[in-house]
Amino acid sequence: MPRVVNSSIVTTIDPVEPHTPGGVGAKLNRLRAAVLGANDGIVSIAALVVGIEGATDSTSAILTAGIAGVLAGALSMAAGEYVSVSSQRDSERALIEKERGELATRKVRELEELTTLYEAKGLSPATAATVARELTAHNAFAAHVEAELHLDPKKLARPWQSALASAGSFFAGAVLPMLAIIFPPPEWRIPVTFALVVVALAITGSVSAYAGGANKTRAVIRVVLGGLIAMSITFAVGKAFNVTGI
Q1: Phi and psi dihedrals of 151, rounded to 5?
Q2: How far apart are CA 27 and CA 246, in angstroms?
Q3: Band of residue 88 on the pLDDT scale cut at 50, 70, 90
Q4: Are 143 and 14 in contact (CB under 8 A)?
Q5: Average of per-residue pLDDT across 20-34
Q6: What is the C-alpha to C-alpha distance for residues 43 and 78, in angstroms, rounded to an integer?
Q7: What are phi and psi of 123, to 5 degrees?
């Protein structure tokens, strides 16, 4: 199953959309990650239960396979996100410690570097030098970490929080196909599931495109077609196993 990865650490100045932990870009990244996690849950579990339905109309078999798939998927997403965000946090800490060491050993060079960074943001050389000196006098470490790394030492990546959020978004997406395949009469299970999944994927595709600033129509078409293809293939495989009696 696809795994959602947090935004990478930015080590260059971006005057338009700074990637600070509380910035708009970071919030949109979290929204996009949540939507993609839900999308994974929808497609993965929909394809699974539709495939099982193709092989048997046993409600208990479908429910058992669906629950197992939801748990496996959510745990997989959580584990993958925990490892990924832990690596990101380790990198953030390493960069922060490196900056701390540079400030202790080459203060003049670091002041010049901070001045250059503020010039790159549009300040005049004289103003940039003044700002750099005053920020350095107030809190040199905080000024350099924010300007160079776009990090807040008090708000580093949180692996457990990210893991729980990833598992939760996957679970939220997986609930829909589970309900759609369980409650309708056997003859309506496939049509209802396909219809609800298409609607859900259209919504997640649209929200994901908004969060990423992409074209909504193309995003929705890609997501919906991907889900339909996945469900069609697994349903065909289930039917094949049912026909052959395997």
Answers
A1: -125, 155
A2: 48
A3: confident
A4: no
A5: 60
A6: 17
A7: -80, 150
Helix (H, G, I), strand (E, B) or coil at 1: coil
Distances from the Cα of 243 to the Cα of 142, 202, 236, 246, angstroms: 67, 33, 10, 8
Angle at 145 between CA 141 and CA 150, to 5 degrees: 160
Measured torsion, CA atoms of residues 139, 135, 91, 27, in degrees rounded to the nearest 10:
110
Residues ≥6 apart with Cβ < 8 Å to 151: 9, 20, 21, 92, 95, 96, 145
Most confident of 68-72, 122-126, 207-211, 212-216: 68-72
C-alpha 47/C-alpha 178 separation (Å) is 11
Q: What is the pTM of this model?
A: 0.69
More confident residue, 110 or 60: 60
Cα–Cα distance measured from residue 221 to residue 203, given in angstroms and rounded to the nearest whole number: 11
pLDDT band at 194 (very low <50, low <70, confident <90, very high): very high
* Token pair 């309900």 in the structure block, residue: 179
Per-residue burial over 4-29, b = 16 or more CB atoms within 10 Å of its CB, e = otherwise: bbbeebbeeeeeeebbbeeeebbebb
Report d(CA 56, CA 209) in Å as an integer. Answer: 37
| Residue 142, pLDDT score | 77
The dihedral of CA 199, 205, 208, 209: what is its sign? negative
Domain coordinates in residue numbering, the chain: 24-241
What is the Cα–Cα distance from 139 to 161, expressed in whole angstroms? 29
Nearest to 147 by CA among 117, 169, 172, 177: 117
